[in-house]
Amino acid sequence: MFNPFPVVIADYRRNRLLVGITLVLVALAVAIGVAVIAQERALRQGSARAADDFDILVGAPGSPTQLVLTSVYLKLQAIPLVSGEVLARASTARGVRYAAPIAFGDNYQGYPIVGTIADFATRGGMLQPASGRVFASRGEAIVGAAVPLAIGATLHPEHGMHHDHDEEDGDEHAHEHNLTYTVVGKLPPRHNIWDSAILVPVEDVWAIHELPSGHTPGSTQIGPPWDAGQLPGAPAIAVKPESVSAAYGLRGQLRTAESMALFPAEVLNDLYSTLGDVRDLMSLLAVATQVLVVVAVLMALLVGFLARARQFAVLRAIGASQRYVFVVIWLEVSLLVASGAAIGLALGYGASWLLMQWIAPRMGFAMPVSLGIEELRLAAALALSGVFIAILPALLSLRKPIAEGLKV
What we know:
The structure is a single chain. This protein has about 400 residues and is α+β, with helices and mostly antiparallel strands. The protein folds into two domains: about 5-50 and about 270-405, no CATH class; about 55-260, no CATH class. It is built from 13 helices and twelve strands. Strands 1, 2, 3, 4, 5, 6, 7, 8, 9, 10, 11 and 12 form a twelve-stranded mixed beta sheet that branches. The longest helix is centred in the last third of the chain and has 44 residues, at about 265-305. The protein is elongated and about 105 Å long. The two termini are about 25 Å apart.
């Protein structure tokens, strides 16, 4: 006897229940760890990509996290306004490509309307409309890729939260303004919450809320240069520096008693550290689960192989060597554990992908799910442990003399 695989396959067929339980236990242990690691990485990468358009954020003194969540991810909350003086100073500072006010408060059928300047809509010329053009006058709008409005469509901004319930539900309903916007362009997909935004001249948003337009009264101009004496406040200012060195200088200049300036990446790093702590805890639990699974699998296999002592004694009685029997048992165990680890790797990836399909629309940005070296290392470690786990039942099954094994 030289080929152990026919015996291994026959044993698998005879012991389907034990094989199935072993595969399920190992697969679940690996899948939990893979899902935790893959989801955390996807969330980190997706949130970082969503913040790429915001080099420096300026806002009124307060919570940096809230400023980032409101401005970058459009998790709209009432935040204090940074004064028009800060916007005027940022717009004319050396090393600034553009300083764009970001004004919220209105929506159209649940799609947020954001008042800003044309430079922000094109990200300083880096982003060209997929169709149409950028707004060039009051009353025009350019929409994100996910907004179901065609070029030429008109819309009325609504103030307040939009709901699809009847009035008797008691929910706050949007109140329509008299202003009408005409869609003149559509942006390409950005795979973040800004795909659902409607961008309009900030002067219109200020006018709707009965604020100065930033220009001489009666002027129809949009965007900079501003009239500093006519500039109202804004929830946030997105500053695009001309260079990395200029960015650090601008952040320092715009950090004053009346404003805070930050790199969104700094705030995200703080959030990532918290996520990292949670991931470490979940990873520890996953490791603990794997240890318990290894113990459970080992005990189940030991019981199973000891119960089949007669089968292995018969193999030896008909001429099979101890080495051959050892290889059969070792292969049965190690292949089971390795197969379970491979199945768990696929299950973990699939579970993470499905979960991200549910989470991404709620978070407002795409989260790329992929398998990295950590997940592969996790599955490989458990598969390798199977190689060593297999040695113990193989040795124990050979300890009994052939005669004693035949009596069982």
